[in-house]
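It is worth pausing here to work through a concrete case rather than discussing structure prediction in the abstract. The textbook approach is simple: state the sequence, then state the predicted structure, then interpret. We follow exactly that order.
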Amino acid sequence: MRKYTYIRTCKKCGEEFKTNNPVQRLHLKCKAKKQKRDKMITAGIDIGSLTAKGIILEDNRIRASYIMRVKSSSLQSAEVVFKQILDDSGLSEKDIHCCCSTGYGRYDIPFSDINKSEISCHGLGAFWSDNSIRSIIDIGGQDCKVILVDDAG
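Step two, the predicted structure:
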């Protein structure tokens, strides 16, 4: 597998750094400092073919969420959803420790720190909400999936 090296500018301190992640926003020094705060605040953005969804979790509790029809581009949808959940939560982008993107448009979100497949996110999200769940049925705009999870999620 070929690895690419990207030169990025840290959005917090402005220093340039090298990474293999094309959407990484903070270099490791700033990311480590950011994670020492009292509360862990994370965001998730799911850009599907029909809807865009966003959520902010603070210490594993839902602080804000939003669902809308997608715009003409994945990036535009992600920006609108992200702005809405930030506004609803009273937070700024700098308050978010980690942003995960998923779905059809997950690679088009430049402010995301990591991206995961919908299957991984569905499994983890369902297990987080109820750890007795063992199967998930996802009927999406382009396909359908059945996901099985074990007692470890």
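Step three, interpretation. Helices lie at 28-34, 74-89, 118-129. The longest helix spans residues 74-89.
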